[in-house]
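Hey team,

Filing this mostly as a record. A colleague (T.K.) asked me to run one chain through the structure pipeline before their review meeting, and I want the input and output archived in the tracker in case anyone asks later how it was produced. No errors, nothing strange. Just documentation.

Input sequence:
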Amino acid sequence: MARRFTLLLLVIICCASLGSLQSAHAATPWSGLTDYTIQVGSYQRVYHVHIPVSYTGTTPLPLVVALHGSKDNGPNMSGLTHFNTVADTYGVIATYPDALKGTWNTDGTAPQDDFAFISAMIQQISGTFMVNSHQVYTMGFSNGATFSEELGCKLSSTFAAVASVSGHMPSTYVCALAHPMPLITFHGTVDPIYSYTGWGSTRNGKHLMGATDAENMWASLSSCTAPAVTTNLPDVVLTDGTTEQLTVTGGCAGGVQMQLYTIIGGGHTWPGGLQYSSVRAIGITSLDLDASVLIWQFFAPYQS
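Output structure:
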């Protein structure tokens, strides 16, 4: 009898614990995602979609492709950026694709075609939900930032604007734009993983641009003629160890603009996002800015 009572008690405890875990998960920024698969070449690819609460299926909505960093995944990108909340606030469909083995094939050395994957994913989402094909945007972090910029080049007819955080494409990447491409980028000055100033030599055989070089290159691609203007931004949270500057380049073809947010004292982090690892490992996350909100506000006026 005692043994039966003990077993029953264990079952009750386990069930109660499971319920608690499910409730906790539902309350995290990772919730609100639906998983989808698509066959691209020889690979079955996975992506995760968040549909805003305002979606009715009658009005086409913008679509934002959010690309995670190296050795990570789509749901973690959702959690890092809290972009689901932004999507709900502004009425945006967000998708978080998974890279194979956690890393985007930005250098073409892996067998899978990630550009074909993103293109096929957008087509599948557009066939499932009401998407405004003129308001499709890409943003990424770290390795995903490099891929985001490359997507803006290679699939420029698809994307209306590009965002990158803590990463940029190589200076030698061939970029033939279908239209002037607006760019917003964020980078910490003490990023220990992807240097703010770029790499003087090469990394994995390629020269990766620094933040200022990236803004200048994108400005050149869109024929910007106005001088860059830098403004010191308010230090909203005095205790976070960071301050910020905004450098804007205008006078571009098609009326587009380039924006660089320099996070002075910031690390390899998403401003306003999660401190996903120790300060010693990745540096400080700025609390003065919310990169996710700023990115969407930058995207919104632009259409392809």
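Quick notes for T.K.: The first helix runs from residue 2 to 26. The mean pLDDT is 89.
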